[in-house]
Amino acid sequence: MDLHMESMASSIGVSIPVLRFLLCFVATIPVSFVHRVIPGRLGKHVYAALSGAVLSYLSFGFSSNLHFLVPMLLGYGSMVLFRSHCGIMTFALGFGYLIGCHVHYMSGDAWKEGGIDATGALMVLTLKVISCAMNYNDGLLKEEDLRESQKKNRLIKLPSLIEYFGYCLCCASHFAGPVYEMKDYLDWTERKGIWARTEKGPSPSPYWATVRAVMQAAICMGIYLYLVPYYPLSRFTDSVYQEWGFWKRLSYQYMSGFTARWKYYFIWSISEASIIISGLGFSGWAPTDPPKPRWDRAKNVDILGVEFAKSAAELPLVWNIQVSTWLRHYVYDRLVPKGKKAGFVQLLATQTTSAVWHGLYPGYIIFFIQSALMIAGSKVIYRWQQATPPTKSFIKKIFVFMNFAYTVLVLNYSCVGFMVLSLHETISAYGSVYYIGTIVPILFFLLGYIIKPTRSARSSKARKDL
């Protein structure tokens, strides 16, 4: 068996631990399908918890489940004993334990060298545990004090321990997301809400949407395996790279980022297939004739939306969508004082939280600070575009193209830090193109305070929006 796995691993250019993870990861699709036929609510919760624990054991070993138990029990204990403060307590304890694991395992180095551990799954679990505690905490608040997302997701009643374990370890999203809410998990398991059986007809069929997601995953993996030999990350420290001219180095950074993204597209497409086949991915009926089922709950990336984003501010809406939604609901929105608008401080705090969640590597920290600058600069260009009168359509189109070119430049420059991780390699790669992806966002950010849309242009746009 080991010889067979070794030959399979070498044929696709990965290590045996990574191959073992990939096999278990793909197995989440049939395992999630079986969930559909498990009888009874209790049976479904037990199956969700056990299937996730077994696949974790097969992927990462017995210690992985012990690691998962720590934040799960800390979160549940805080809900039982300290409900009025369980949200902030679980946030601090969950992130604290995750940071400790990041420091202990230094998973980024292992991933770069072809290894893998349970830290990635622990990252997803941490977000689930925190959101569950915060929603239970919100159940104590008055409805008029809550945002719409809080009203929708708050928990009045404490979930039972088996419901909680099923939610945390449900294999369809346990390895790589997407993150979803405890209330949605309970409604799906109990066939309530949009999952309730009606007299209108049979439940929506997930099979074609699952096939589409699997086909997308296969295409993404094929593109990644084709491109990665031509654009290895090791090239950034190669003397040949330093001998290239500015434009060739800049284009190599673009292609490296472009290549790396297909790996994530593959991972999220498999997760999407698993969530859809289980039925949890269903998000309602599209207003068409006849109505068609939507499976947006499982969607974690819009590939074309990322590659052709017209603005950097659009990227959180199309990349790692469910984590971006989590950050907006549980960090960004909650940092905004009541009656005030969010600003750069909230954006920077949210991006820093995302950086720490990924790990304490300098490359992560730099990337997410960069991304805050990138989004802020893009918003400046967008404000100029919106303030341009409709009669000057050519100038408006120039701003649209400027924002697109800006996003392509800064995104692929910034993501080098996310890929290489170390401070030396990140600074070296940024310096090789004269820090253009840092200087340009800062310039636009500062220009936003100098060149402001006229009051008449802004009020005209506001009236038009109304």
Automatic annotation (TrEMBL):
Its membrane topology: Multi-pass membrane protein
Keyword Cell membrane: no
TM annotation in the entry: 12-34, 46-68, 80-99, 161-180, 207-227, 265-286, 355-377, 398-421, 433-451
Annotated compartments: Membrane
GO molecular function ontology, one term from the record: 1-acylglycerophosphocholine O-acyltransferase activity
This protein's record includes keyword Cytoplasm: no
PANTHER family reported for this sequence: LYSOPHOSPHOLIPID ACYLTRANSFERASE 6 (PTHR13906:SF4), PORCUPINE (PTHR13906)
Protein name (database record): Acyl-CoA:lysophosphatidylcholine acyltransferase
Source organism of this protein record: Bernardia pulchella
